[in-house]
Amino acid sequence: ITYAKRLQDAIMPPLKMVKQHFPESFILYKPKDIIAGDFYWMEAIDNNVFFAAADSTGHGVPGALVSVVCSNALNRALKEFKLNEPGKILDKTRELVLETFEKSEGEVKDGMDISLICVNHTTKKISWSGANNPLWYINKNGLQEIKATKQPIGKTENPIPFTTHQLEYEEGTIFYLITDGFADQFGGPKGKKFKYKQLQEQFLLNKDKNLNEQQTILDTSFESWRGELEQVDDVTLIGFKI
Prior knowledge:
Radius of gyration: 17 Å
Largest sheet: 5 strands, antiparallel
Order of helices and strands: HHEEEHHEEEEEEEEHHE
Number of strands: 12
Strand order of the largest sheet: 1-12-9-6-7
Helix content: 25-40%
């Protein structure tokens, strides 16, 4: 399992690569087990920087296996099929993931939820697409949310194309890519879920702090909320400022 963790770490971008493109950034990555269904992904091609937080079905060993399939499909959509629009990348990724699992004699419904952003520092353009997971960002008007397409990357009834949203490039904006593990954690005085609203409040409360401080505060909040309770899922929170 520990060696498997090294292999899984190898499919994720090293922190120095993330800092090269987004000097002000953090990644709070807390697997429930040694290896995880959650993963983060980054590729830079033709001035476009693609950055994603993804949550594969399950956690531990099954989740990690699905994460490798999903990460590989993202790489192929970008490099082999030369796609650069987040919605189209997710469409192709879904197709490739389904193709992989169709070979199984039993029905495999696994896949992932994902928040995928593309930032072009040259053209000052930003585009985003999500499968079940939203995009949050803080600008001069406060915290904004772009809702995801309500379907996973994987087998789904009545699939529709993933929507690509275009955003204005505003310097000083902080973007957050999230999976559901933080919000779904039970804890606090009544043993209830943390929930998205409380997470948004944390982001707003700490928006003027640097990103490293934000990471520390979020990590402390999570652990104190969880207390003695077991961590229920993998946690991935990514923040970066442009």
